[in-house]
Amino acid sequence: MQQSVEALVKVLESYRGRDKVIRTVCYGSQLVGGVLSRKAETDVSSHQLGKSLLLFSASAQSLPDSCYVALMHVGCVSKEEDTAVRWISVLTNVADQLYYPCEHIAWAADAELIKVKSDKWWLLSTVLWGTSLLLGILRSLRVLLLLKKKLNRHESNGSASSRSQLRRQMRGEVLSVLSSMADLSNAIHWMPPGFLWAGRFPNWLVGLMGTVSSLIGLIQMNAGDNDQSDST
After folding, report:
1. Residue whose C-alpha is closest to residue 218's, from 60, 16, 3
2. Could you tell me the superkingdom of the organism this chain comes from (predicted)?
């Protein structure tokens, strides 16, 4: 119990950690609210609670995200050894850098801070977000292939610690794929009607996909902190 509390405190101490916790709470509220709001009208208390949670989730998610994600790969792209991974990282970073200004313009338009229509800016933001997620999935799959080859070479002449580290990296990439796929499913849902399953997700399913992605992000963040602690 104490270790869990300490891990939560460590997460909340960082700007990135607080964003991830808020994101988890928002999508979790949408998940629970979506389930409760589907109950029969006779269950008034549960139905109203569900509506309140959905309203809270919508209000919180309408705020613009912080820009730390867009800066995560800056300065790191050049360190990639594989050409395909390096170029995918470059394109991902470009999509991320373009996404946040578009999202902030859309948010400012909805808040009537600027006199432009927000619809096109939200659509552009969603397209850029989905592009970044798709590129992230391709990058993780490529990295998994490279790690698999490296692990096969280490099976014969590598140390146990190096094999263990490679397996941890592979698990991290698998989690990244699952997280990005969950977010990508929501991104497609928010596209204009007629595009794949756009607009067909109920609130609880949007909340579920977002919650899964957010929890994976928290797990990865905690695992990264533990790896740094072990290496020091």
Report:
1. 16
2. Eukaryota
- Long-range contacts (CB closer than 8 Å, 24 or more residues apart) made by 192-199: 192/123
Q: How far is CA 212 from CA 24, 30, 124, 142, 224, in A?
A: 8, 12, 24, 23, 18
Contact 121, 105 (CB under 8 A): yes
Look up residue 89 and give its two tokens: 């990282």
Region for residue 221 given its phi and psi (left: phi exceeds 0; alpha: psi -120 to 50; beta: otherwise): alpha
As a whole number of angstroms, the distance between CA 197 and CA 186 comes to 10
Can you count the helices (H) and strands (E) in the chain?
A: 8, 0
The span from the CA of 128 to the CA of 206, in Å, is: 19
Rounded (10°) CA dihedral 206, 58, 62, 29: -70
